[in-house]
Design brief:
The complex is a heterodimer of chains A (201) and B (201).
Chain A lengths: L3 H4 L1 H12 L6 H8 L3 E5 L4 E3 L7 E7 L2 E7 L2 E8 L4 E2 L2 H6 L6 E4 L3 E7 H10 L3 H25 L2 H11 L3 H4 L2 H7 L4 H7 L1 H4 L2
Antiparallel strand pairs in A: 1-8, 2-7, 3-6, 3-8, 4-5, 4-7
Chain B lengths: L4 H16 L6 H10 L1 E5 L4 E3 L7 E7 L1 E8 L2 E9 L3 E2 L2 H6 L6 E4 L3 E7 H10 L1 H27 L2 H11 L3 H4 L2 H7 L4 H7 L7
Antiparallel strand pairs in B: 1-8, 2-7, 3-6, 3-8, 4-5, 4-7
Helix pairs in contact in B: 4-5, 8-9
Classes of the chains: A alpha+beta (201), B alpha+beta (201).
Chain lengths: 201, 201
């Protein structure tokens, strides 16, 4: 097996930072957890999961950018944009082992750490405090989703635009505008019109 | 004791059925689980949690009806309506310890098994089995929310209305129409117009 650390030194750092949000993890424990994972490297515009397929992987981005979208009446609606350190996959499909309703696709050449469903089950069972870590990660995912739903319902398009681009200014360079507009649920024309709001800063 | 006789058996049976979806629970374990909770009873229109307060409880509803909502200016946005057999509370606040953004309010006289944040932590720490139960219930809670979000995106207003009414025939009698409309994110006028779909002649 390839030594995971040699592939990308940021890998350990991202994974550690991600997991430390939930509980204290030593580097040895982290290495043990990473032994359940595999590193995958793909070109940009690689479709990792199609609608109708069962998603077998949970991915953490080490380098690159992955998006998740749903096809509604032939137009794509972007649900998530994941960059370095973020976790992305088709959650419902992965957790329930049912066909995915969404697509997962890379926008840049991407390196990721991936965990299959079976390996996750194994880790939950064998890793000390695996159940606890699993629960805390799920709790984190739940809270994040609830927050983003709350803000979507509460905030105006202009507020959503400003909040997002102030927090993630580099995304304007990395992601085509129409995707960002879709992600923020703002009409593309409106998005273009609002661009001066961040350009001036 | 708040509940007795046949009602007591019904309630216990409800809870056991709920748990058995997730994990096998022996009679002894069931008794142990009950001991972590406290039975609570509320009049209708009781506010259980307000914005700004930390949610101290999650409720397993044994009878009655509870809604969760927040205020957007003066408008109530209802995100959850939960009847007997379901779980509700201001979830993010309960899980993070941050102040709630939501109101939680009974719509009918309601009885519930409530578990406090403190007791739940203690319960998780007491056995790997309960930690696992916590993980699977959290997963379930996450999935319900995620599937609803996907339904909102993938289905038209009309489709959402029909699906909801088919799955919750009883709620049309129990919940004021304007609340159902808000929960389904449908304008009250549209909701009234769609009502004929429920009684095909």
């Amino acid at each position: 097996m390839t030594n995971l650390i040699d592939i990308n030194p940021s890998l350990i750092e991202y994974a550690h930072r991600y997991l430390q949000r939930f509980m204290t993890i030593t580097i040895d424990e982290l290495k043990m957890l990473l032994s359940y994972c595999e590193v995958r490297q793909v070109e940009k515009r690689t479709i990792l999961v199609k609608e109708g397929e069962v998603d077998n992987y949970l991915n953490m981005v080490v380098k690159g950018l992955i998006m998740k979208y749903v096809r509604v009446k032939k137009s794509d609606m972007i649900l998530q944009l994941a960059t370095e350190g973020h976790v992305i996959h088709s959650e419902i499909s992965f957790l329930t082992r049912t066909p995915s309703m969404v697509f997962v696709e890379t926008l840049e050449p991407t390196i990721m750490v991936s965990l299959t469903y079976d390996k996750m089950e194994e880790a939950l069972d064998k890793f000390p405090q695996g159940e606890r870590l699993g629960r805390l990660i799920l709790t984190g995912m739940y809270v994040k989703k609830e927050e983003s739903r709350y803000y979507r319902l509460l905030k105006s398009p202009r507020e959503r635009f400003l909040d997002y681009l102030n927090a993630h200014p580099h995304m304007l360079q990395r992601v085509p505008q129409k995707y960002l507009a879709s992600y923020l649920n703002i009409k593309p024309e409106t998005f273009s019109r609002m661009k001066h709001l961040v350009a001036k800063q | 004791m708040l509940i007795c006789g046949i009602e007591y058996l019904r309630v216990m049976n409800n809870l056991l059925t709920f748990l058995n979806q997730f994990i096998k629970v022996s009679p002894e374990e069931f008794a142990e689980l009950i001991a972590w909770t406290e039975p609570r009873q509320f009049e209708k229109k009781t506010i259980l949690t307000k914005p700004g307060e930390v949610e101290e409880y999650m409720y397993f509803i044994t009878s009655g009806l509870v809604r969760k909502y927040f205020l957007k200016k003066d408008q109530e946005i209802i995100t959850h309506i939960v009847k007997e057999g379901g779980i509700l509370g201001s979830g993010e606040s309960f899980l993070t310890g941050e102040p709630s953004r939501y109101f939680v309010e009974t719509l009918e006289p309601t009885t519930a098994f409530a578990i406090s944040r403190y007791k739940l932590e203690e319960m998780y720490g007491s056995s790997k089995k309960w930690e696992k139960l916590g993980r699977v219930i959290t997963t379930q809670y996450f999935l319900v929310q995620e599937i609803r979000l996907m339904d909102n995106i993938r289905f038209s207003t009309r489709e959402r209305f029909v699906k909801f009414m088919k799955e919750n025939t009883d709620l049309i009698q129990r919940v004021p129409q304007k609340y159902l409309a808000s929960y389904l994110n449908i304008k009250p006028e549209t909701f009234s117009r769609l009502k004929h779909l429920m009684n095909p002649k």
